[in-house]
Structure prediction request, 282 residues.
Amino acid sequence: MPVIGTRQSPIHLVAEQALPLADPAALMTIRYGARESFTGRFAKLETDHPILAIDDPGRASVRFRDIDWKLLQVHIHTESEHVVGNDDPHDFEIHLVHVPYIAAESERADKKRKDKKGTHAGCAGPNCQTLVYPEAPPKLVIGILYRLLEARESTGETTGGLRQLAAQLSPKPAPAAGKKGKPADAADEDCGHGDHVPPESVNIAPYHFFPMLEPKKADLVNWYHYEGSLTGPPYSEDVSWFVMRDPARISEGTLECLDLFAAQHARELQAIDRRLVVRSFS
Ligand SMILES: [Zn+2]
Prediction:
């Protein structure tokens, strides 16, 4: 039976109520590189939420509290969970889920043992596997909010990493998708329907999921941080949250395409209670 306490997520983040940090980089640094990519496969957790499980990256992507964290999985909420400032909820929120680099290794070995026993059943489709986590490691989740582009805006402004992912999910992916760094712009085409099986393996470039600080430079430094929970069962309060201050942009075609493969509903806002929220910006 899950225990739901007073540190639940998501929450409403307001700059005026968050404490600015004097040296945010000493607390947390995001180390995704512009040319870095990861392979992953669609899978389902025990909770039945579809996720993109990342193949062991073999390297850390985040440093937090002097611990290295690596990317474990990525999933999407259509309609954002966190709310930033006085804004309405955004159209889309991506969660990059990280676990401590060392702890994840033993967990992986444990999963392998379980797979041998054939316990990864319960999920339809040839490319589906169920991940079983016997003991939940602490998690660090980076939340990135997205705002839909207006029709008159260029679809070229869609965050490149998402366009690249959506292009790979099309029934006929563009040949260059995920290979040459320049994302294909196929996302606004028909990207398949319910019966379309996603490719066995997809390639993602998390750096290009983030909002832009300036042209060609992602914003990895402006964030809110608080301690909270998973936003789905078992709602365990073992998540260090980092939510990016500014939204990135997504086109309607890209959103619809990603929604088909990774839809998760947004949980309602939870009380902040007596928690401290900090921010990296002044
Ligand atoms: Zn989530």
Summary: The chain has four helices and 18 strands. The CA atoms of residues 73 and 126 lie 19 Å apart. The two ends are 41 Å apart (CA to CA).
